[in-house]
Amino acid sequence: MNRNIAVIRGDGIGPEIIAEAIGVLDAVAKRYGHTFSYSEAPMGGSAIDAFGVPLPDSSRKTCLASDGVLLGAVGGPKWDSQPPENRPERGLLKLRGAMGLYANLRPARMFAELSSTCPLRADIAAKGIDFLVVRELIGGVYFGTHRTEMVDGEQRATDIMSYSEHEICRIAHVAFQTARQRRRRVTSVDKANVLDSSRLWRKTVCAVAEEYPDVELLHMYVDNAAMQIVRDPSQFDVILTENLFGDILSDEASQITGSIGMIPSASLGEGTCGLYEPIHGSAPDIAGQDKANPIGTVLAAAMLLRHSFGMEREAAAVEAAVKSVLRGGYRCRDICQPGCTPVGCREMGLLLREAIC
Ligand code: NAD
Prior knowledge:
The protein has helices spanning 14-32, 45-51, 57-64, 88-99, 122-125, 165-180, 196-209, 222-231, 243-256, 295-307, 312-327, 345-355; strands at 2-10, 35-40, 68-73, 103-109, 130-136, 146-151, 154-159, 185-190, 216-221, 238-241, 264-268, 275-278, 330-331, 341-342. 40% of the residues lie in helices and 21% in strands. The protein has a ten-stranded mixed beta sheet, sandwiched between helices. It is globular. It is α/β, with parallel strands linked by helices and 357 residues long. A hairpin with a 2-residue loop joins strand 6 (146-151) and strand 7 (154-159). Nicotinamide-adenine-dinucleotide (NAD) binds next to helix 4.
């Protein structure tokens, strides 16, 4: 297969981790007989420096014309004084909007080799952590009306959370379809005891569930879900939730698996073209020092292979390579434990390329 990947190297450690992810993709292409070509799409602080804006029109077009977008991370102190409309992160929000990316998939998976970095009790960690948060990404309170006004001599601020049936339907389908490729269990998280938007959420998810009789559906209030994620994460397969709840729960979920440097994410819309990135930022404190862990970005590349290219075998090969290198005792410094071999970003990339089979 021939596929074109738009590459946003970004700022800070972005260029370092992207270089290693591309190396792994090239190893996959060679091993499985594909051709991947890469189109550069500057975004974030480096784009502000070169073009004056965080998302140049040419980059937006390059991404929209690609088969999938791979992103490092954007932002850093150099651009903190930019006006809100011109900050590096603004480019990312604009790109998500332009690509219509309404579904965010974030796996919370702990590699058994890293269980000692898990902050949960050993008996809980021993049961394993492997679930996926499917978060609605372009609706809810983040995209509702925001207002601050004077009422009776004091300020009052209002943020409106609203959802339409079609917005809930389309993300529910993503969750059920994804669950079919996993352990066939969806836990829909809401606050239906209090919020109207959650009551519509629950009713609509139940209606969609009728099309997936082979997938088990459970409902959970968000406060309970936050508690259950740390009490017994092994009970979850796919967590389906709205934008605000998903933002909070997916960060909680990533923390219990060990390091932020290990977790990928995928943002998907109607077509097959998605945006794939590690969940962390540009880590300016370690940029340019060969200290970054590239595994989150490499696993994001595996998600790109799976979700945008339909290359399940190739995605599994990348995940197996990560497992094999960890089993060999090699660790970047963020996940290094006594007795392991510390490696830098470049050496980790090399080991991963060599482990593709
Ligand atoms: P961060 O995620 O960049 O860093 C937090 C800590 O984790 C730092 O100590 C860093 O060294 C460490 N870390 C992060 N990724 C790592 C990796 N791959 N390997 C080893 N250690 C790693 O968060 P921050 O410092 O709050 O943000 C820095 C910049 O990134 C800010 O400008 C922020 O706005 C931006 N940011 C961008 C994105 C994105 O592009 N999607 C996401 C979050 C933050």
